[in-house]
Design goal:
Layout (H helix, E strand, L loop, with lengths): L2 E5 L5 E6 L2 H4 L5 H15 L58 H17 L3 E4 L9 H10 L5 E5 L4 H7 L5 E5 L5 H6 L2 E5 H11 L1
Parallel strand pairs: 1-3, 3-6, 4-5, 4-6
Antiparallel strand pairs: 1-2
Helix pairs in contact: 2-3, 4-5
């Protein structure tokens, strides 16, 4: 089992924690990680783009000039794609980009992402994250103590003081154990986790 150092909010070592290899020492499956990221981004797409084809554009019901004898190229409608104001060829229509990923595949991808962060020493465990008030400056001091610049902060409970304090920091995102995902784990350089959050992750995903 992998051992990681546990820090306090001052950035000092206060112990160590043994991680469950079933989650934090899993075999990394790059294909599933890629599929999980693609799925998440695809599911975010609105798919509401629309342009009109030649059958939907107003006008153009009459042939603009006779077939022969004018010297012009033959034309059937002033709303054909080559005309200004004409329809669009293969115009985009509203569609749903989302697709399904099996639960086991999602879980394996999440384990792979977490394992990669542990292997890269980008997984920081904190004994607790507690603030008496909503104060962005105090939270920035904690990050400075941990030597973290861009991070996903995973909390064990819905502590509004911590969440609201971190909200205005550009490169920081907070998440609960129930909302962590592969995309966020890979997007942020470091994962900062409380001991309580690690215990919950091990309990849910083991």
């Amino acid at each position: 089992m992998a051992n990681v150092v546990v820090y306090n909010m001052e950035g000092k070592e206060v112990g160590s924690l043994e991680l469950n290899d079933a989650i934090f020492g899993a075999k990394i499956n790059e294909h599933l990680v890629h599929m999980a990221v693609v799925q998440q981004l695809a599911n975010k797409r609105q798919g509401t783009q629309k342009a009109k084809t030649r059958s939907e554009v107003r006008g153009g019901g009459r042939k603009p000039w006779r077939q022969k004898g004018t010297g012009h190229a033959r034309q059937g409608s002033i709303r054909a794609p080559q005309w200004t104001g004409g329809g669009v060829v293969f115009a985009p229509v509203p569609r749903d980009y989302s697709f399904k990923l099996n639960k086991k595949e999602k879980r394996a991808a999440l384990k792979s992402a977490l394992t990669s962060r542990v292997n890269d020493n980008k997984f920081i465990v904190v004994d607790e994250l507690k603030l008496d008030e909503i104060k962005t400056k105090k939270f920035q001091e904690i990050l400075k103590n941990l030597k973290v610049d861009k991070a996903l902060v995973v909390l064990g409970d819905n502590d509004q003081n911590v969440i609201m304090s971190a909200r205005n920091i550009p490169k920081i995102k907070t998440a609960l154990t129930s909302t962590i995902n592969v995309y966020d784990i890979l997007k942020y350089d470091t994962v900062v986790v409380t001991k309580a959050a690690v215990a919950t992750i091990e309990e849910v995903y083991a």
